Amino acid sequence: MEGPVTLPEVIRYIEVKNNISSLEFKKRCFSSDDDKLDRELSVLDAELRVLESKLAAAEIEVAFPFEEDIDKISGIICSFPPEAIKEALKKRVSILFEVIQARAALIKENQLNRDNIAKLAILISKLDRTTNEKILSVVRLGKVTQKISLRTTEQYSSKHLSTLFSRLKISATISDDSISPSKGDSEPVSQVPVKLKDRFVWVSNTISEKLRLNIQKIQEINPKIQLKNAERQIRVFDDQEEKDFQQMQMDYLSLLKEQDDLLKDFYDEERITFNA
Fold first, then answer.
1. DSSP string over 79-123
2. Which distant-in-sequence residues (6+ apart) come within 8 Å of 272 by Cβ?
3. What is the pLDDT of residues 184-243, one digit of tens each?
4. 248, 250, 249, 269: which is closest to 118 by C-alpha?
5. 255: closest CA among 266, 267, 265, 247?
6. Residue 275: pLDDT above 80?
7. Among 1, 15, 88, 118, which residue's CB has the most CB atoms within a 10 Å radius?
8. How many C-beta atoms lie closer than 10 Å to residue 55's C-beta?
């Protein structure tokens, strides 16, 4: 029996889906018969089938923001002959090129937001089936066109839905008991993404600079500790050197503790999104 689906697995599903979509678009629009491209697609398809099986067993369906727009734009681009597409990419000054750029921007945004798309998919999977299907449609369209009521048992999700919709630029007005079309007034951005290792974490504006400084300090002190530790393996430190080394380690641990504190809400969100 398979274990529960993990957040990294849903994120990987999104990555594989995006990669396959990109390669298929290239093959379709450029009439490419590249054997290497076909081999890449074959490997990705095999991985996708495994991930799809796990997600289906967990009743998790992933919807990509503005998926309907991406499909429409892709259809427009691929209606042109390959030579015209290549020429547009070469000259970079035509309406066709602007359309290609618009598609690329949406794809890039979804790739950068894969963590949030995965969290949203997991959160939606916990809702009533009818609500689930309606919200999946909203995500694909990128906006709410008619009011969606949330059951009392689903109201815990409204805060997290609001947060994720905002990050994914999905237009909506969300209250405790409903999701409605946007009133048109854009809300001020209360969170910003900050790069941490190989991912983005989302924090409030008020602590974003403090987190960036914390990350910078950790990046600076970490190699120094490694160097001192290596040096310590080949010679004996004197008392002052040993004291300085111990202080450096304490500073490093203090920075890690500060980072955990700064990211508490973000990590709580990941846990709640998965376990709510």
1. TS-HHHHHHHHHH--SHHHHHHHHHHHHHHHHHHTHHHHHHHHHH
2. 160
3. 655 556 789 999 988 899 999 999 999 999 999 999 999 999 999 999 999 999 999 999
4. 269
5. 247
6. no
7. 118
8. 19
- CB crowding 167-204: b at 16 or more within 10 Å, else e: bbebbbbbeeeebeeeeeeeeeeebbbbebeeebbbbe
Residues 182/171, Cβ–Cβ less than 8 Å? yes
Under DSSP, the state recorded for 41 is H
Q: Which two tokens stand for residue 140?
A: 């694909």
Task: Read off the tokens for 68.
Answer: 């309907």
139 CB burial (10 A radius; 0-12, 13-18, 19+): buried
**Looking at per-residue confidence, does 186 or 94 come out higher?**
94
Q: Contact 144/178 with Cβ under 8 angstroms? A: no
Phi, psi of 186 (to 5 degrees): -75, 130
How far apart are alpha carbons 74 and 30 in whole angstroms? 12
Tokens 């815990």 sit on residue: 156
Residue 275 burial class via C-beta count within 10 angstroms: exposed 0-12, middle 13-18, buried 19 and up: exposed
Conformational region of residue 238, where left means phi above 0, alpha means psi within -120 to 50, and beta covers everything else: beta
The pLDDT assigned to 71 comes to 94
Sorted by sequence, the CB contacts under 8 Å of residue 200 that are 6+ apart come out as: 112, 115, 193, 194
Cβ neighbours of 49 (radius 10 Å): 10
* pLDDT of 89 above 70: yes
